[in-house]
Amino acid sequence: MSLPEVAAQRDWMTAAIVDARLALATGDVPVAALVIDADGQVIGSGRNERELRQDPTAHAEILALREAAATRGEWRLEDTTLVVTLEPCVMCAGAILAARVPRVVFGAWDEKAGASGSVYDVLRDRRLNHRVEVFAGVEERRCSELLTEFFRGSEQ
């Protein structure tokens, strides 16, 4: 991967971290996702809104994919990159595959529910009809700290 690509991933992740902080206002876990098109433009964004919407499917990735599909006017999100602050879960990995997203960039690993290399590796499972290129650990420390702060606060 070239230096400009690495820099772009870090810039996108920084934007996602800023957005993730907004989830704190609704008591949601601070996770955010962006869908980036081939020109480097954000065509979809979302942050966790399960508490806000009382919807178990309102994960950041799902909301970002929905917005990107609406922006494009089609469900196939080929030539895009999904950037998310936390490793996608099984549900989100399934949605990423269904949308034909070719690349995922994530920050923090999810050792309890991750489906992009930690607990499961759904995105790269050769038995499925689509596989995703995964870039893990981008701005990992910053993403992890945001989650650690949130869960530390919820214990008090």
Gyration radius over CA: 14 Å
| Tally of individual helices | 5
User: How far apart are the first and last residues' alpha carbons, in Å?
Assistant: 42 Å
Share of residues in helices: 25-40%
General shape: globular
Low-confidence stretches: none
Folded structure, characterized:
- The structure is a single chain.
- Strands 2-1-3-4-5 form a five-stranded mixed β-sheet.
- By secondary structure, it is an alpha/beta fold.
- The protein has helices at 3-22, 50-53, 60-72, 90-98, 140-155, and strands spanning 32-36, 42-47, 81-86, 103-108, 133-135.
- The protein has five helices and five strands.
Outline the fold blueprint.
Elements: H1 3-22, E1 32-36, E2 42-47, H2 50-53, H3 60-72, E3 81-86, H4 90-98, E4 103-108, E5 133-135, H5 140-155
Parallel strand pairs: 3-4, 4-5
Antiparallel strand pairs: 1-2, 1-3
What's this entry about, in short?
40% of the residues lie in helices and 17% in strands. The chain is of the alpha/beta class and 156 residues long.
List the keywords.
single chain, 156 residues, alpha/beta, five-stranded mixed β-sheet, 17% strand
